[in-house]
Amino acid sequence: APFMDPAACVLSVHQRAFALCEGPATAARRDRSKDRFVITLPLPQAKLVWEVILDLADASSPPDFIFDDRIDAPAPFVPTHLNTLTGWTWSDHAFMSLIQELLYVRQGHMLARARAHPCASIGVEIRAAEVHPLWAVNAGDVDVAVTADGVQVRLRIRNLPEVIGRVNTVLAARPALLTATIKPRSVALCTCECAVQMPLELSAISIPSSTINLSAYFDFILGTIQDVVQRATESLALRRQFIAAFMAYLGGGLLEYDVDSFTRVSALLTLARLPFILRVDLNDNFPNIQPVYTFISPSGTATQTVKDYPYSPRWAPDEMLRRLRAYLLQNGPAILEKWRRST
Fold it and tell me: Is this prediction's pTM over 0.70?
């Protein structure tokens, strides 16, 4: 769909307007003095105001339009062929489909104007961005405003890398929204200020705005996301290895572990004939953030969290578990004895 869904547009019906809920053709038969109405289309870059003209002599004829030349000057939008008008029959659905097609055609028109901008480097920016693999080129994925100050572009970036979420599944990210303001400095030079708004799945990824050409900013976005995805993938693999090592060293009393994101494992253990539950919590950024060990009494009435213990993110998971077992043998009995005395 275009940036502005025509089905959700604000239909400003003036005093001499048709009642759209009844359908323009029905209203024309009832009151032949009302031959036009105005629709307001709030696009991101500008608010379009189009006047819709109806043929009172033949209510079944398709509508005509007066487009907003103030927005589209000096090269007004003049559509020549519309598929929606082939075999036209009046209905609210047909009318909204016509508005949608007009928006698509207008977006393509504005994109063509941007490519042919008098500042040659602006045209180069637009054409270079179009062939970048991040942008699925589609008239509905771009909103372009050509002004005396330059070109403002809003793009939906659809071809983002797949993202690994907290759950051990691959999520296809929704489109990101890139905004670029390109201003001419001379006939041959321009400046381009870029910023991107990431979809929900990637909202934790911070991509700063930059004054850089569009293609380079696409590459910057792609590289940043790929780095994050690679780190997430490596962390997931190491968390799996850690839990496998936990089960090998301390898994005789295994109670549970997280089979989706591998961020938690717990086991019932015994030290000095005193039972306790050891729970290990792994951060999504493991091993850069060390695990949190929690001692829990079998009744659940006493807990103690341990963070101050020997640790290095460079150790292999196998080495971490050997060190954890040594820590338990050395420090665990004192913790359990303290609990026993308090009860």
Answer: no
